[in-house]
Structures are given as C-alpha cells and as structure tokens.
From TrEMBL:
Function: Involved in the cellular defense against the biological effects of O6-methylguanine (O6-MeG) and O4-methylthymine (O4-MeT) in DNA. Repairs the methylated nucleobase in DNA by stoichiometrically transferring the methyl group to a cysteine residue in the enzyme. This is a suicide reaction: the enzyme is irreversibly inactivated.
Origin organism lineage: Bacteria, Pseudomonadati, Pseudomonadota, Alphaproteobacteria, Rhodobacterales
EC number(s) recorded for this UniProt protein: 2.1.1.63
Gene3D superfamilies: Methylated DNA-protein cysteine methyltransferase domain, Winged helix-like DNA-binding domain superfamily/Winged helix DNA-binding domain
Classification via Pfam families: DNA_binding_1, Methyltransf_1N
Keywords assigned: Cytoplasm, DNA damage, DNA repair, Methyltransferase, Transferase
Protein localization: Cytoplasm
Name of this protein: Methylated-DNA--protein-cysteine methyltransferase
PANTHER family: METHYLATED-DNA--PROTEIN-CYSTEINE METHYLTRANSFERASE
Reactions the enzyme catalyzes: a 4-O-methyl-thymidine in DNA + L-cysteinyl-[protein] = a thymidine in DNA + S-methyl-L-cysteinyl-[protein]; a 6-O-methyl-2'-deoxyguanosine in DNA + L-cysteinyl-[protein] = S-methyl-L-cysteinyl-[protein] + a 2'-deoxyguanosine in DNA
Amino acid sequence: MPRTCIDTPTGPFEITETDGAITRATWTRSDASDATPLLRRAADQVAAYFAGRLTTFDLPLRVAASPFQQQVCAQIAAIPFGETLTYGDIARTLGAPPQAVGRGCGGNPIALIIPCHRVLGRDGLGGFSGGTGVETKVWLLRHEGAGGLLI
C-alpha cells in the first residue's frame, strides 16, 4: 500500500492509499514517501488545512470497517469545519449508545480528514486517540475556531 508522511504543526502525519482511495491517516513518525497522484493531492490538502487555506477535504475515502463504524465515520465526516457535535448527538441520529459512538470515533481510521476531533463529550472534550491525544484535539479545534469553551 502506498504511503506518505508529512510534517504538520501537530506532528508527523501518515496517509495511506489502497486501490485509489485514502484508507488510513494517522499521526505517526514514518519514512514513507510514496508519491502517487492521490497521495500528493492528499498531502497538499492536509498542508492547506494546516495553513488555513482549506476547510473541506475532497478526497476519495474508504473506511474498511464494520457497518456501524462506517456509519459513525459518515456522521463525523458531515460535521462542517468550525462546528462540533457531541457523542450523544451522533448516538441519537444512529440510535446507538454514546459509548458506542465514542468507540467508533476512537476507531476512525482516517483521522483529521474524517474530523473526529469535532466530536465532544456532553460535559467537555471527550477523548482523542490521534497525535498527542487531547492536546492535538484542542489544537485542531482552536485552529478551526470551534469549541468556544477552548478559545
């Protein structure tokens, strides 16, 4: 599977392509440097996001996971830049417990591009499994001007 890694303000970020779709994106140090057209486009979009020039990713994505995980990721992907929902908001939409949605957020294989950082707990930030954890989530929400409790 072709992969590339780019430096971001929140740490090294690796993107994986499988059969013409982005299938994984995560914070990890890697020497991957494949240069497929899709990976170049994805890296350019991630860089534009961090530079404040992009608010919506336009990439083919494939979430290789259970149907429920796919539903959670679809709900997360629909959250606009600068806005947030709670685990409970998504749970009500899917008819599932908030804890299951939280696990679904934590299992998001395409972090940042599917913006799980935009999902908050009922009474606070909730968790975050990317980058350095909650610190990365706070950074991303501040970058987007979201989560007024953080600004």
